[in-house]
Amino acid sequence: MIYVTGDLHGPAGLERLECWSEGREGDFLIVAGDFGYPWDYSEIECDEIVWLESLPYKVLFVDGNHERFGHWEDRPAESWCGGMVQRLRDRSPVMRLMRSEVYNIDGVRIFTLGGATSIDRAYRMPHVNWWPQEVPTERNFEEARANLGAVGWNVDYVVTHTCPRNLMARTLYPSIPIPGLPDERLTRFLDEVDWRLDYKRWYYGHFHKDMDVDEKHTLLFERIVPIGEGVGN
């Protein structure tokens, strides 16, 4: 069984997993961005990572905007379930589902594309608690087109951190979208994917809400749902 949840933000989200008892041996839990490990390499954080690695199910994640990208740039990539992944550390069962990849996990075809813009980046320090790699590149978009083309633009599910541009107003309501963010190219590319791709349901995080935006798009934060299901609002 595959499950999906929203932003973890490192220790801030651990209680969610501590209280969740459905995950079993052989299951997978996908975090829709802002996984948040590693961050400061503290002794407490190392203990939390050991706990995550001890869970009976595998923890997978797409990157968000609050990740330590310097760590991931140094990690080797390997092939897993048809796509490329990076392990949190050598032999770790915790894995990053990389950008633009298509996986076949437990018989389910999943497209992933992490990344988004930190709206608080002006108050953060580059390469200390903010990394410019948070926003995908045109190369990522071209790789996504190629990988989706190879499967006939047909997958079962999509997991991203942010959402297509056409969903932004409904996602943020009653707030309004902020124009001109650096990830506008990303959200417009996700529009292209949304229009071209044949899929059953799209999951994303980033906005700290749990809601079914419509019958095919589910925004996740604290809820954990079996893949294929929404939150039911």
TrEMBL record:
Top-level division of the source organism's lineage: Bacteria
Domain Calcineurin-like phosphoesterase: 2-209
GO MF annotation terms: hydrolase activity
Pfam families attached to this UniProt entry: Metallophos (PF00149)
Protein name stated in the entry: Metallophosphoesterase
Organism: Collinsella intestinalis
